[in-house]
Specification:
Elements lengths: L1 H25 L7 H36 L11 H15 L5 H4 L1 H26 L4 H25 L2 H11 L8 H17 L1 H5 L1 H4 L3 H6 L4 H23 L5 H13 L4 H25 L7 H22 L1
């Protein structure tokens, strides 16, 4: 009965996402003019696909990360990928300048971001996980320390760099769907699909892993290996989404907890689906608001950050009361 209700709720969420997609693709479009219609579709389609991909990556990674840490008010941004992204772009602008190949070419920037963040994720969240005797809390502490470390270096570079370069850099550090490269979308889908395929067995064991280490081991699960691989997968998903559109720190916290509160289940197949659908609705609705109401004056990441901060306080207060 509970499963049937959740399937109905997920169907409602899917219809809401489809409605948001239709609204985003049709609001303000001049259907009577064929050239303007074709131009609008050519501009909006890549942005819509980018939002769907970003929601899929962050939504699924957030649920998995919360289940691994066994805490529903943590977010994958604690792994330090957002700050590493900011540091990479700041270093490029500081060393090579805003007119350099890496700063101008979106494909090259995406490749460099993904390569560096993927390498850091592999070293830290695979190797160090073994070195810390498979302690998830140690890994989380390492991620928090690295976040501060990357932020300190990035702040130092921005203080001594040219002011004009800094002004140009600021637009690069804000998550944006305005200028999305189609080639990046294809590569992002390929990376996410490859990671999901590689870790498919661990994903299938999520319901068992959340029972606890002792129970999972008793049921025949290689707990430490599964957790290590899932952490690596989460980091690669967040790295891909961040490299594609920029940092969206609070999005994962919002949509993962909305999914948990809306579905009230421990089945990860349903929770991940709900989180992804909530992410799509939030991003598409937010971008529609940015373009049609605020006329691009405020990026969607600002609304997500403010809303995420308020929602985080709400979660803290309600959990303490509970």
């Amino acid at each position: 009965m509970k499963t049937h209700k959740n399937h109905l709720r997920l169907l409602i969420l899917l219809l809401l996402v489809l409605l948001a997609c239709v609204g985003y693709m049709t609001v303000g479009v001049h259907f009577e003019n064929q050239k303007l219609f074709a131009y609008a579709m050519r501009i909006r389609t890549p942005k819509l696909i980018a939002m769907l991909i970003t929601a899929f990556a962050i939504g699924s990674a957030s649920i998995v990360f919360q289940s691994i840490i066994n805490n529903t008010i943590v977010t994958p941004c604690l792994l330090g990928m957002d700050q590493l992204y900011s540091l990479i772009h700041t270093a490029v602008f500081f060393v090579a300048g805003s007119g350099s190949f890496l700063a101008v070419n979106a494909n090259a920037a995406f490749a460099v971001d993904l390569a560096i963040m993927g390498a850091v994720a592999t070293v830290i969240y695979s190797y160090l996980f073994r070195k810390t005797n498979h302690n998830v809390l140690y890994v989380l502490l390492i991620g928090t320390v690295l976040t501060s470390f990357f932020s300190s270096i990035q702040t130092t570079l921005t203080r001594v760099m040219d002011p004009n370069e800094y002004d140009t850099l600021l637009t690069d550090l804000v998550a944006s769907f305005s200028n999305v490269n189609s080639a990046i979308l294809v590569l992002s889908v390929a990376v996410l699909a490859l990671v999901a395929f590689a870790f498919r067995k661990e994903l299938a064991l999520l319901d068992v892993l959340t029972l606890g280490k002792d129970q999972a081991i008793n049921l025949g699960v290689d707990y430490d290996r599964c957790i290590r691989r899932l952490l690596l997968g989460v980091t690669l998903y967040i790295a891909t989404a961040t490299a594609m559109v920029g940092p969206l720190a609070f999005l994962g916290l919002i949509i993962a907890n909305l999914s948990r509160q809306f579905l009230r289940t421990y089945r990860h197949s349903q929770l991940i689906t709900g989180s992804v659908l909530f992410g799509m609705a939030v991003l598409i609705g937010g971008q529609l608001l940015v373009e049609r109401v605020f006329v691009y004056s405020v990026p969607v990441s600002v609304f997500i950050t403010v809303g995420g901060g308020v929602y985080f306080l709400y979660l803290l207060l309600t959990q303490r009361k509970a």
